[in-house]
Amino acid sequence: MKKVFTLSTCTTSKLILKKAKVAELGFEIKDIKMAPITEEELFQLRSLAGSYEALFSRRSQKYKSFGLSEKVLQEADYKDLLLSEYTFLKRPVILDGEHLFIGNSKATVEALLRHLNLPSVL
User: Fold this and answer.
1) pTM value?
2) Which residues contact 100 (CB under 8 A, 6 or more apart)?
3) pLDDT class for 122, splitting at 50, 70, 90?
4) Inside any domain, residue 90
5) Which of 84, 97, 104, 106 is the most buried (most CB within 10 A)?
């Protein structure tokens, strides 16, 4: 399966997806604001990521407004938060078969481009 979970309004994600040529390579692009991630999709991502926490973004504005930095979260909490609020998903999440790329760090983007046999962004 070739699938991207992103926000169509996120300029950083747009740049990454353009560099990775995901549309040209036949990836399905899912805007998680318009079509929220399903429990089944989240479980599949968690299976590859190793945890729900790995998919969770602490950079979301709601992380602070919900007071989550003051709480000790468990895996079930991360799962519930990811299903209830799209902004908690680290973006973009790119699934290519059994290969998963989470977030927009330079290392993640470089690994994605190598995986797709595309030129580095350096």
Assistant:
1) 0.93
2) 45, 48, 49, 93, 94
3) low
4) no
5) 104
